[in-house]
Amino acid sequence: QVQLVESGGGLVQAGGSLRLSCAASRSIFSFMFMGWYRQAPGKQRELVAIMASSGSTTYATSVEGRFTISRDNAKNTVYLQMNTLKPEDTAVYYCRAEAFWGQGTLVTVSS
């Protein structure tokens, strides 16, 4: 079992930046992958970015070049740096570690 706690969400203007953090209750070293997903109102949850234990990354086309996922194994934390935010990035962002999910953090981008 592991608890995942997201933080860093909030309200930002279009073009701005936010950094989300996902703190795990235990070591994340053993997870084959960790990632970020998001769910906008009325839409299905979708992949934003994932990072494998090897360090390889995958991004949704809509965020590639603007978002960066990273992890700090020593701090048991995964990050999502979000730059050049757009109103369509507004969603609840969830952290995932294989079968485990966090509760989500809301990101609102105003135009």
Question: Would you spell out the secondary-structure blueprint of this structure?
Answer:
Elements: E1 4-7, E2 10-13, E3 18-24, E4 33-39, E5 46-52, E6 57-59, E7 67-72, E8 77-82, E9 91-97, E10 100-101, E11 105-110
Parallel strand pairs: 2-11
Antiparallel strand pairs: 1-3, 3-8, 4-5, 4-9, 5-6, 7-8, 9-10, 9-11
- Secondary-structure element order, as H and E? EEEEEEEEEEE
Average pLDDT, rounded to a whole number, is: 96
Q: How is the main sheet built?
A: 7 strands, mixed
Computed over alpha carbons, the radius of gyration is 13 Å
How many DSSP helices?
0
Gross geometry: globular
State the helicity in percent bands: under 10%
Annotation, overall tally of beta strands: 11
Unreliable stretches covering 5 or more consecutive residues: none
Estimate the strand proportion.
over 45%
Distance from first to last alpha carbon: 40 Å
Given the helix and strand composition, which structural class is it?
mainly beta
Q: In brief, what are we looking at here?
A:
The chain is mostly beta strands and 111 residues long.
Keywords:
mainly beta; seven-stranded mixed beta sheet; four-stranded antiparallel beta sheet; globular
